[in-house]
Please model this.
Amino acid sequence: MSAASFTPLPPESFRRTPWKNGGGVTIDIADAYREGAAPGSWEGMIWRFGRTSIVAPGPFSDLAGYERLQLVIAGSGLVLETQASLETPASEIDLRSPFKPVRYDGGTPIISRLENGPVEVVNLIADRALCEIDLIVATTGQDGILGAGSHVIYAPENAVTGSCDAKPVRIEPGHALLIEARIAVSLKAVTGLAVIATIALPSPAA
Model:
């Protein structure tokens, strides 16, 4: 049995979903839901990976209970202003530079600020009680290991080529590849820039 399965995710398989607060639209690339939950819903979501355009400053959706990882893939100058609470002072989350992931609590009250105009971002959102997540940028010549779990490799710019578990991989621009790894597998990027969303579910209790 292979250590991993590979499912191509072409753009026509992506789903357009309104933001939870209705302020925009996200393009879901891949996701997972609790049994019985409607795909695309904000209820019953286990994890979700997608991209969205931010064209005007505004509040972010309240995603309390979820971990968020985010990076800019087009444009620059995005700043997330966090609102003061009884526990924490106001601050900012710096996303000014593209392809630099940041992690924050989905329940943090946030208003976006655009210093250089509209941007496009990718988001990885997960129920922190069910998943451990990471968001990685891989460039030409990088080697790495993907642990057991779900991994979405997205090509936001040019085609990405390489290998995973010794199998050749090619992802066209704007496409993605879902890798379900039973055990840790090797990954090598040969050409292109890839954004890799990694989702690990906890092992069942003994």
In short: The chain has a mean pLDDT of 93. The CA atoms of residues 15 and 70 lie 19 Å apart.
